[in-house]
Amino acid sequence: ITIFIDAESNEDLLVRLESRDHGNTVNRTERLAAIEQERAFGAKCDHRVVNLTGKLTETIDTIDKIIQNR
């Protein structure tokens, strides 16, 4: 079983990356370049789960249900 965990939007993903990178523009640039490739992989996964900002528990519950029902 494959599960792709995605952000709700590109904008949300950029905000998350910037908060993690602490101004490291090299890492941000590399991550931005990888987004398309990662999402192309995600399209091939069995499931796609959107990790909504501030809703980690709900995301975990969704993934747990997917695993339990496989």
Question: Topology of this structure?
Answer:
Elements: E1 3-6, H1 10-21, H2 25-42, E2 47-50, H3 56-68
Parallel strand pairs: 1-2
Helix pairs in contact: 1-2
Q: Work out the strand percent.
A: 5-15%
Helix/strand/pairing category: mainly alpha
- Secondary structure tally: strands: 2
Please give the order of strands in the largest beta sheet: 1-2
- How would you spell out the order of helices and strands? EHHEH
Could you describe the largest sheet, including whether it forms a barrel? 2 strands, parallel
Number of helices: 3
Determine the mean pLDDT.
Answer: 88
Bulk shape: globular
Helix % is 55-70%
Please state the CA-atom Rg, rounded to the nearest Å.
Answer: 13 Å
Question: Kindly, what is the distance between the CA atoms of the first and last residues, rounded to a whole number of angstroms?
Answer: 8 Å
Query: Which regions contain 5 or more consecutive residues with pLDDT less than 50?
Result: none
Any overview of this molecule?
The protein has 70 residues and is mainly α. The chain is built from three helices and two strands, in the order E-H-H-E-H. The chain has a two-stranded parallel sheet with strand order 1-2. Helix 1 runs antiparallel to helix 2 (25-42). The model has no long low-confidence stretch (mean pLDDT 88).
